[in-house]
Each structure stands twice: as C-alpha cells, then as structure tokens.
C-alpha cells in the first residue's frame, strides 16, 4: 500500500467507461498528468494494482495494463518484491496545491514567441452558404467527376503497384504528368517545352511560395500591380523581400512605371497576371506585354506569370501568355486546375527553364518531398484522353450565359448602385459600388441572408482606396444568380 497522500491523489482520478479511449489508457494518461504536475514525485511509490483497482472500482488487470504502458514509456519503474515507483530519472516538478481540479485541454497560446508579421485574415468559407458571389470560382457541379473517379480507380488497380506506391518519386512530379502538361502547354498556349520544363505543384500559392523560397533573398525587390492579390503580397512579405507596387489602369500594369523603378533599383522579380489582372480583371495590352519582356531582358529580372484563368475567354481566343514570347528563359509560368475544376482540387504546374525546374525541385524536396503522384497520373490520363478539353468546351458557353445574365441583372436591378465593365473572359465581374454603400456592412448582412460576398478589405491598400469587389458568377446557376441579386437589391 502507498502512503495515504498517494492514495488520496489516485482516488481523485476520474475514469469514463463509456469513452472510446480504453479505460487503462485513461488511467495511464491520468497518472502521467499527476507526474507532470509534480503531484507524484520522482522515486515515489505507487499503490499496488489491487489497491488502485479497489480505489477506482475497476478491474485489477486494467491497472496492470496502465502500469505496464507507463513502464514501457519510461515513466514508471517496477521491482519484484518492492513495487512500482515513479521513475528516478524524471526531474521533479513543483507540485500544485490540491484543491480545484485543473483539467488539461487544448493549448490556445504557445509558450514561445512567433514572428510579428501581419498575415491576411482567414476569410469565412463561401461554400457553407446556399448562395455565393465568390472570388471567381468554377462550378464543381460541372466538373468531370465521373471521369476523374474512373481514372483514379484505374490508377489503383492497374499493374505496377510497387512502381507507383512502393517508393518516392521525383519532386517535380510524375513523368506521365510532366509529359502531359508539356504537350498541353505546347498545344494550347504555344509554349515550347519538354517534360523537363514542368514542375507539379498544389496550386498557385504553393508555386509562388516555392519560387520565393528558392529564388528570392531578403531585401530583393519584387514589383507587382496595385491593387493586386494580397495572398501574393504576403508571400513577398514572408520572403522578407522589398515589395514595390505600381499602378494598374484599364490596360493593365503600367509598365512605364516599372521602367522608372528599374533605373533606380535592381529588380529581382515582377509578379503579373496579364490575362486578367487580379482583382480588376483588365487584360495587359499587347504593347505592354512586349515591353515587359524587353525590360526583363534589359534589367535582368524574371517574371512570375500567374495565368489563373486562361481557359475561359468568351469574345475571342485569349492572348497567348508572356511565356510564349519568352526566348531567353525570363518567365516562370504558373497555371492551376484549381481554377478550372474546383478550389478544393489542389493541382497545378510551373513552367520554366530546365535549370530553374531542377533548382525548384531541390528546394521543394525540403518542404513537400513530392506531390501526389497518383493524382498527377490521373490528371495526365484526363489530359491525354481529351477529357479536359471536352470539359472546357462544354463549360465555356455555360459560363458565358451566366456572365450575360448576371451583368443584365446588375444593370437592371442595381443600376444606380454599381458600376462595372462586362468582362471578356474569366469568372467574375469587378464591381464598384456607390461610395454611400459600406461593403463590410453589406457583406455581413448578406451573410445572414445566406449569401456570401467579399467585404472589400482584400482590395484596400494604403495609397489605393476603392469601394469595389469581385462578384463571381461562374459557380452559381442562373436561378442562384437571380436570388443573389434579389438579396443585394433588398439590402442596398
């Protein structure tokens, strides 16, 4: 028998036989907490298994299993003929006074300091609401999910399981995927690539973060348009880069302002979304595109081209990417199937010179080792069998009809409250509201009515103020668009 104090401590343990965690493990956990709190000291003898069983009204075997568990972990020591003791190798903790029971729970605040860099807020997910005028996402109800399921099942049942599952692959992605993406880029975007120019990523943000980690040093100058994508801006901040914003007008990035900066500073990277600038959706005019490439070669900086919605253009074929006119390896081109299928589908690619891909692969292996090669191969199958192109051809007229209806509704129902230009492509309408309308208040009221829309804070900058937000139309049916605009009309 242990001391009366020890028995009192043990007797205070509460066990729950209905809990999914086994009772002996609950007992082991409780004893471990007592040791960590200093209530059971190093070298202190514990009551025998029979006594503990009597104190807690449980089976003696349960106590034995708990003791054995803690002995295997090194918390307890048992000697034949002497009994069970708290390990002598454990440093004593200052015991806490008996009294109000302290229940261990999830830790809310770390005991160490974290960097004070200001990161963006985590926004409320729009998918939890029945209606959403989101940031410009595709409709997952139109995605080729049956074909995806079938291709995934084929990957799991085909021969060569060890080759696919038994070891690690190349950090740049599976050979099948890289070859398929290379051919897809060459056929649809007039790039000149081989598989060695391709790296698989889990979406645009990962690609941008990887490039910053691999190619940007603290203090390097990164230039991008203002307003821009705050997630990209915070990647630059995280990389400890010197981020400089330049204006964006109705023709895209004002490239002449970039030249002025290049004359004063050594620019390392320019982040650009030439197809549809984020967030305003304007396209970079052809003369500015060519000038941007000339400046990259003249001043020795590289371009990160985020081509997030190349596949969706309604009026005419989209202008080819900057990368298609790059003959000196100055462009890192980034695309994502998240913008074609669903944001939940994390699959994309970087296209760059072979030595850049090799360097990025060596850095990527430190973070992620490799992507999901099974999904890589699934996507490669869907590209090579034509599924992706058929899906894009099918959805393009659907999204165009939704765009036309949505813009008509904005004009007819909210004419005096909003200003916008009908976009030639993409999945969203950049909409500027009358200054009398407070967007944060509007978004909060709409959320309570079951409609998600941005509160506009993501598009505010110290020297750029706008009362505009992106209103995505592609992920909503026509009926949902009508209901969404009706809610906005009532709230405004």
UniProtKB/TrEMBL annotation:
Pfam families: Aminotran_1_2, GntR. In the C-terminal section; belongs to the class-I pyridoxal-phosphate-dependent aminotransferase family. PANTHER family: HTH-TYPE TRANSCRIPTIONAL REGULATORY PROTEIN GABR (PTHR46577), TRANSCRIPTIONAL REGULATORY PROTEIN (PTHR46577:SF2). PROSITE patterns: HTH_GNTR (PS50949). Residues 21-89 form the HTH gntR-type domain. Keywords: Aminotransferase, DNA-binding, Pyridoxal phosphate, Transcription, Transcription regulation, Transferase. CDD domains: AAT_like (cd00609), WHTH_GntR (cd07377). One of its GO terms (molecular function) is transaminase activity. This is GntR family transcriptional regulator / MocR family aminotransferase.
